[in-house]
Design goal:
The complex is a heterotrimer of chains A (about 375), B (about 170) and C (about 120). Chain A contains eleven helices and four strands, in the order αααββββαααααααα. Chain A has about 375 residues and is mainly α. Chain A has one domain. The C terminus of chain A is likely disordered. With about 170 residues, chain B is mainly alpha-helical. Chain B has a domain of about 45 residues. Helices cover about 75% and strands about 0% of the residues of chain B. Chain B is built from six helices and no strands. With about 120 residues, chain C is mainly alpha-helical. Chain C is elongated. The N terminus of chain C is likely disordered. The chains are: A mainly alpha (about 375), B mainly alpha (about 170), C mainly alpha (about 120). Chains in contact: A-B, A-C, B-C. Chains A and B meet through helix 1, helix 4 and helix 5 of A and helix 2 and helix 3 of B.
């Protein structure tokens, strides 16, 4: 019993409370951003294709996601006859859980500071705008992305439909093929920052100018964007799920809420890769004019929204890859390019020498002991 | 701390149960999914034992790559679903001996590990990196594993390749 | 670099006490999973399931390595786990390639049916 009342547990309770608050904020923000993204994507695509897009439902069609949600909610849930019942339910769950969990280590700001109020503290602790500051932050995201393949594999297999199975296998093969290039594009960032923590990476970009950092990591940024596009099954790499191919691929047999969950998982994966790119390559919450404008989470959101716009832009512009062209590009061109970049950057680091002291993070490590931090 | 204890013992329980499911399921796909759950719960246990780096690597390498390979092979080879155990007396004796051996080994290990402390070894990934590269003990083994992986890749591709038709 | 030892005893009091039972439980789980894997190798008939039981045994060994690394306070256990990952990946790849070749030639994945060399 005294285990429950020890001072460690009081600290634990406060940490848990703060973590739950942060999780609630991010969860709801993501739900809102997801529905906004569906609307923005349709509008932006439409304007790029010289038409209007949804503009009936609310002022400028802004209630369209709500209408879509209501429609999906009222649709009938159909389960195919020979489908594996448990896996049919589990696949969207796995997909959405892996999509959300990887956002737990993405920071969107330093300690929370409200402009005219000062630093916000709860029970004497400053609030870092990051749910869990893991020592192996980027590896954690890579691990969860690897697990995201299973959502698709399960969805394809559980539908008892040959086309779904093939579509699911194709999609997941594409995903883990481009994961290699994705991981290799991060290596230069991690090497330059000296740490796996995302807060450290932004701190390193702070120490050298944000623009210098971006110019230094620019090839890695390009490789990352291409690999991330393929990772999220986004055009031009969305052969396995486009409506004209293989009868919509692995989510053929899904309807109503499960389909909504699969779509949500895809969009939230997209948001995650954009958030990561803005943290790792674009400097996160650092302002582009370092002395003149202050750092703030708004910069992070602006950069993330810009990258999302770039994804939509690419979708409107580029035709789709055929599947064998896609795999050829992934294995024979992107991975050698990423490997060459790793070799080149390692050579440069060895030649010019690393920074001697490891960077301190802008998210204050010494006063946060988040619940999610596992290696302590 | 109570949360650490709950998470660790919960993960241990899940690992035990899903480990049993791996050998007890009929179809290979169910065995594969149980093995994935075992690997993820083992990753949680690694993290609670102080090595978050190895936990992340376990999920990336084992659950994220090796098991995907297994699943692909199972799904594409269309193995017959109804795989029974090896029937007859051998099968049942095997299971009985297996249960006895499992219980005995757990008892022996439990008794033998009774005194082991958990030294406060908070390891970060930099420690693993230093051990691999900065000390001469493991550097050569690391380079040798790269040769191992290359030869395994080449071997796998050669073995699994279809024979080309003559005169094509 | 902040001194990590003082960090976590000050903010998370009672942290160390909970961990002293972990090594024992981890080793017991490792022993159990290893034996389960070995039993699976003997019992199961499908080649792929046998290979999965071998992977289970390797995972159990990994857990034992990590538990001992924690118990002795050294990093060697984790480095050996790194090597076990590598070897297991290479072995799984080559083994599955052999399984594919077997399936293509014989259409049968039952370990009892590979008995051509039997005297």
């Amino acid at each position: 019993m005294e285990l429950l009342l020890s001072p460690g547990n009081k600290e634990l309770a406060i940490d848990a409370l703060i973590a739950i608050l942060k999780i609630a904020v991010i969860f709801n923000a993501l739900l809102g951003l997801f529905s906004l993204m569906t609307y923005i994507e349709r509008r932006v695509l439409a304007f790029m294709q010289f038409r209007r897009g949804p503009n009936r439902v609310g002022p400028w069609g802004i209630l369209q996601p709500a209408a879509d949600g209501i429609k999906l909610f009222f649709k009938e849930e159909v389960m195919p006859e020979g489908a594996h019942k448990f896996l049919f339910f589990a696949a969207p769950v796995v997909a959405i859980i892996t999509a959300y969990v990887s956002l737990a280590v993405v920071p969107y700001g330093g300690p929370l500071v409200i402009p005219f109020y000062g630093q916000v503290t709860i029970f004497g602790r400053p609030i870092d705008l990051q749910i869990a500051d893991l020592d192996v932050g980027i590896l954690f995201i890579f691990a969860i992305t690897s697990l995201g393949v299973y959502g698709i594999v399960l969805a394809g297999y559980a539908s008892n439909n040959k086309y779904s199975l093939l579509g699911g296998l194709r999609s997941s093969a594409q995903m883990f093929s481009y994961e290699l290039a994705l991981g290799m594009s991060w290596v230069s960032v991690i090497m330059a920052a000296g740490s796996f923590r995302l807060g450290d990476i932004v701190a390193t970009a702070d120490r050298m100018n944000v623009w210098v950092w971006f110019a230094m990591q620019f090839p890695a940024f390009i490789i990352y964007m291409i690999a991330a596009c393929a990772e999220v099954n986004r055009t031009p790499f969305d052969l396995a799920e486009s409506e004209t191919e293989l009868v919509a691929g692995f989510h053929t047999e899904y309807s109503s809420m499960k389909f909504a969950l699969l779509q949500m998982a895809e969009y939230i994966n997209m948001i995650t890769v954009c958030a990561l790119a803005s943290n790792m390559f674009l400097g996160g919450w650092l302002s582009p004019l370092p002395g003149i404008l202050p750092n703030s989470p708004l910069w992070f959101f602006a950069k993330m929204l810009f990258l999302l716009f770039v994804f939509i832009w690419i979708r409107a512009t580029v035709p789709r890859f055929r599947y064998d062209q896609l795999m050829d590009f992934g294995w024979k061109r992107l991975i050698p390019a990423a490997a060459l970049w790793v070799v080149f950057f390692s050579g440069m680091t060895a030649f010019f020498g690393e920074k001697k002291s490891p960077p301190t993070t802008t998210a204050a490590v010494s006063t946060m002991a988040p619940v999610g931090q596992v290696s302590r | 701390m109570i949360l650490d204890v709950v998470i660790f013992y919960g993960a241990a329980l899940v690992a035990l149960v899903s480990g049993l499911f791996v050998i007890a399921q009929r179809s290979p796909i169910n065995s594969a999914f149980s093995l994935i759950i075992t690997m993820c719960s083992l990753a949680v246990m690694f993290a609670m034992l102080g090595s978050g780096f190895i936990a992340a690597l376990q999920v990336i390498v084992y659950a994220g790559a090796i098991m995907v390979l297994f699943l692909f092979v199972i799904m594409l080879l269309n193995t017959k679903q109804d795989e029974g155990d090896r029937g007859g007396g051998i099968g049942r004796a095997g299971i009985a001996l297996g249960i006895i051996l499992a219980v005995q080994s757990v008892m022996v290990v439990w008794k033998g590990a009774a005194g082991l402390p958990a030294k406060h070894a908070v390891t970060v990934s930099a420690d693993v990196g230093r051990g691999l590269f900065a000390s001469p003990r493991y550097l050569y083994a690391f380079e040798a594993t790269s040769i191992l992986i290359i030869s395994a890749m080449v071997g796998a591709i050669v073995v699994a390749r279809k024979e080309k038709e003559k005169g094509k | 670099m902040p001194n990590l030892d003082t960090l976590y005893t000050s903010t998370l009091g009672g942290f160390q006490a909970a961990h002293d039972g972990f090594v024992q439980v981890a080793l017991a789980v490792s022993a159990f999973l290893f034996v389960i894997g070995a039993v699976g190798v003997f019992i199961r008939r499908n080649v792929i399931t046998v290979m999965m039981c071998i992977e289970l045994m390797l995972n159990a060994v990994n857990l034992a390595f990590i538990a001992f690394s924690r118990a002795h306070g050294t990093i060697d256990g984790q480095i050996l786990v790194f090597f076990v990952f590598t070897v297991a990946a290479a072995e799984a790849a080559v083994g599955l390639a052999i399984v594919i070749a077997l399936q293509r030639n014989r259409e049968d994945l039952d370990v009892d049916s590979f008995n051509l060399l039997k005297g």
